């Protein structure tokens, strides 16, 4: 555990975090980031964390991306409601956290994570 300046906390208390095996919540939340679709695979780079996640297949996202983007494979800013799900990876035997769209999809080529 680190303090606000990033230095380790000197304490006799146990600050170790343990992972839990509980399912991810399915409550939709507003997400903002860049969406890229290419070769039947979609990824979403979250503005808040900078982490890139695979996106569960969604025809509305594919169609919105096609309308908003002139050049396939280039990222487009996206705001939408979504939740996370743990799903099998494209690599056999692995699982991954994916973004599952829940609606209110809005693509905007004029925006980015730095100016939304």
- The CATH topology annotation of the domain at 31-108 reads as OB fold (Dihydrolipoamide Acetyltransferase, E2P)
Beta-strand percent range = 35-45%
Alpha-carbon distance between the termini? Answer: 32 Å
CATH class of the domain at 31-108: Mainly Beta
Count of β-strands: 5
Secondary structure tally, helices? 1
The low-pLDDT segments are none
Q: Spell the H/E element sequence.
A: EEEHEE
In the sheet with the most strands, the strands line up as: 3-2-1-4-5
Oligomeric status of the shown chains?
single chain
Based on the coordinates given, report the CATH architecture of the domain at 31-108.
Beta Barrel
Radius of gyration: 17 Å
Could you give a short account of the major beta sheet? 5 strands, antiparallel
Q: What overall geometry do the principal axes of the alpha carbons give?
A: globular
Mean pLDDT: 87
InterPro entries: NlpE_C, NlpE_C_sf
Pfam family, one: NlpE_C
Organism: Oryza sativa subsp. indica (Rice)
Protein name: NlpE C-terminal OB domain-containing protein
